[in-house]
């Protein structure tokens, strides 16, 4: 009987081993097939596609629109699901088109690569199979564009050859193309002088009276480069902080604000909310602030200079580095909670400031980054710079800081 159990046990392990081997082979074959679909485009195929476009366009205008090819997806989604309407651009109209068909590579003036998706092509990285275009398909007049809206540490550090990219398209103002998360603020008088439609942020002052005291924080990333979670944990020792989302400590608060809901009512119930970013980088301000500027609650951010450099009204937010430590900040917040006159000071900007229309020339936000790219393609000469190492270049461009370095000074020992 013991021998029977021994052999049966060995047989089970053997079958499990065989099953694992078969599964591994299937996964590898799938990965090879998948990655081939990334790069298996011949020059003749691409040339044929180019000729077909020329045939289609031959009967019309003298100049063709500039073609922008998205070689990668954006966070796994095909760009056609997020297709940009160039009719919304101030001046572009029919001057540019967007494509996601890789066969259009020879016909394209710019090839855009979304950083996170360069390293997100199935099993390509695991199998060391490149999902980048073959060298034979690269036209020397083309612009290869590195695109990301994330900080360097969250952009995947893609593995690409030296001098692969020509331009950067990121949130940093010094990028070749800047794509902001939100609009440009401007004084109402300046907007009127330009005959812009005025977005009114003034609210009934009764909305400054809150149901709850303390700070509201909706958060899903619990371990960040900026170490904002440490800053908030210290702040919570001196003032109430309501944490909801994935980082909450109970199931009710974890599910209080599903992704499908805006949770604006929750924000408005509190006098303050956390708008700190996962990284403290030059010009890195996301929807955490921009999507909630209409809510009469005061955002708490990490670094004042980042927001003031972006033209955001200085009294509209409170920054950690305005204070020597969490206790001093908490004491100031408590004063604002109980002194409506002092609280109103941080709301006065609503009477004097507005935002530029999204399509205003020179004031475009993220959705108009493509407008700027289109403009640059028409302005560009035939000679282009190349970026030696895109990852180190982007790190220097974004100039992100070490969150721990600030907190070691800010948090008392």
From TrEMBL:
Pathway: Protein modification; protein glycosylation. The chain crosses the membrane at residues 12-32. It is found in: Golgi apparatus, Golgi stack membrane. Keywords: Glycoprotein, Glycosyltransferase, Golgi apparatus, Membrane, Signal-anchor, Transferase, Transmembrane, Transmembrane helix. Residues 66-182 form the Fucosyltransferase N-terminal domain. Residues 210-392 form the Fucosyltransferase C-terminal domain. It is a single-pass type II membrane protein. The keyword Cell membrane does not apply. InterPro entries: Glyco_tran_10_C (IPR055270), Glyco_tran_10_N (IPR031481), Glyco_trans_10 (IPR001503), GT10-like_C_sf (IPR038577). Its EC number is 2.4.1.-. Belongs to the glycosyltransferase 10 family. This is Fucosyltransferase.
């Amino acid at each position: 009987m013991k021998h029977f159990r021994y052999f049966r046990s060995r047989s089970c392990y053997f079958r499990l081993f065989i099953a694992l081997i078969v599964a591994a082979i299937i996964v590898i074959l799938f990965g090879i097939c998948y990655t081939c679909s990334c790069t298996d485009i011949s020059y003749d195929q691409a040339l044929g596609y180019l000729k077909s476009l020329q045939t289609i366009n031959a009967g019309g205008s003298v100049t063709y629109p500039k073609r922008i090819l998205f070689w990668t997806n954006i966070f796994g989604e095909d760009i056609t699901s997020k297709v940009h309407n160039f009719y919304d651009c101030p001046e572009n109209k029919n001057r540019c088109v967007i494509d996601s068909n890789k066969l259009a590579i020879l016909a394209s003036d710019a090839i855009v690569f979304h950083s996170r998706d360069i390293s997100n092509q199935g099993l390509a990285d695991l199998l060391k199979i490149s999902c980048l275009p073959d060298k034979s398909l690269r036209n020397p007049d083309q612009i290869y564009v590195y695109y990301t809206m994330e900080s360097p540490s969250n952009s995947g550090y893609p593995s690409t050859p030296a001098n692969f990219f020509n331009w950067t398209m990121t949130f940093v103002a010094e990028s070749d193309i800047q794509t902001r998360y939100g609009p440009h603020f401007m004084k109402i008088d300046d907007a009127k002088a330009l005959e812009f439609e005025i977005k009114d942020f003034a609210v009934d002052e009764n909305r400054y009276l809150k149901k709850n005291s303390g700070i509201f924080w909706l958060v899903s990333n619990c371990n960040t480069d900026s170490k904002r979670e440490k800053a908030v944990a210290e702040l919570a020792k001196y003032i109430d902080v309501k944490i909801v989302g994935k980082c909450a400590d109970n199931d009710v608060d974890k599910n209080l604000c599903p992704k499908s809901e805006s949770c604006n009512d929750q924000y408005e119930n509190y006098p303050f909310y956390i708008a700190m970013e996962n990284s403290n980088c030059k010009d890195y301000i996301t929807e955490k602030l921009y999507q909630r500027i209409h809510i009469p609650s005061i955002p708490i951010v990490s670094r004042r200079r980042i927001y003031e450099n972006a033209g955001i009204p200085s009294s509209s937010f409170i920054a950690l580095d305005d204070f020597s430590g969490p206790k001093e900040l908490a004491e100031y917040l408590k004063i604002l909670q109980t002194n409506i006159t002092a609280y109103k000071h941080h709301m006065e900007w609503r009477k004097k400031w507005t935002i530029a229309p999204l399509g205003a020339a020179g004031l475009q936000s993220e959705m108009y980054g493509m407008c700027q790219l289109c403009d640059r393609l028409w302005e560009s000469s035939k000679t282009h710079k190349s970026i030696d190492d895109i990852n180190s270049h982007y790190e220097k461009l974004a100039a992100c800081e070490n969150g721990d370095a600030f907190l070691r000074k800010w948090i008392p020992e």
